Amino acid sequence: MKAIVCHEFGPLDKLSYEEVDTPNAGPGNVVLDIKAAGVNYPDGLMVQGLYQMKPPFPFTPGSEVAGVISEVGDGVNHVKAGDRVIGFVGVGGYAEKALCPATHLIPIPDGISDAEAAGLTTAHATAHHALKQRANIQPGETLLVTGAAGGTGLAAVQIGKAMGATVIAACSSEEKLQLAKENGADILINYKENDLKTELKAINDGKGIDVVYDTVGGDAFDACSRCMAWNGRLLIIGFASGEIPKFPVNLALVKGYSVVGVFWGSFTAHQPKDFADNMRELLGWYLQGKVKVVVDEALPLSDAKAALEKVMGRQVKGKMVLLP
To answer: Which segments cross the bilayer (predicted)?
Structure first.
């Protein structure tokens, strides 16, 4: 089968598209015929050796896929060959086939395309977990989303709105802000043309922001850290700016807010029941039209490098998807 392979950490152009061995389903696993694979910012970090997890070489990047089960291992009884599913594979998704733990499968309801299903887990499930378990966001609270037109930022806009928050979208262009508005954002801030800190201080009668979903880091994080409400929750999602900020802890002390880390991959391992409950709720919202995956572009598997470059360059509005 064909797959994208990383033989050593380095620039994206070191990735190769090559023939690899087809996986076999061992106990507790299934093999998926992949129809679509989601492309995520951590995938690009991983192949450069910049991510928390460093798989042994050679490895195939890609954590979220949609496909059809082609082989079932021993001990797997709740799914069968031919089932159409979403799979969270960890690594191995940029390929024609992938091995997936049977515990990390979600049936795809009718009406959701392969491309949309492949983009649903990482971005939307991260945003859902962040706002539900980590922030415990309440109806009527203010939610600021930085990088609000990217995959997980746009998901946070939709889910925040579904959970009853007043959603503030911060983006680097008017085009991106318009997309955020179309997906439920109530207040729009262009932080390339306006000072983010000044704009935030004018919102919520000067009381500060209840929940911040920060995907950007850098200067955006610094502005957010100074504009939090009492009992606010500043969620650390990622650092798309490339700059991991330094946090002055005295701000949390005097302003009485929490800085909360969000790592969805670890959540699925530590709280599998909550993960399953979240996905049921998320799929229900999807079928009700409260959330959706906005696919920016679907490229052939062989164009994985171009897809990753677009994601890493923050040029994506919504999600990038690969089609084997």
So the answer is: none
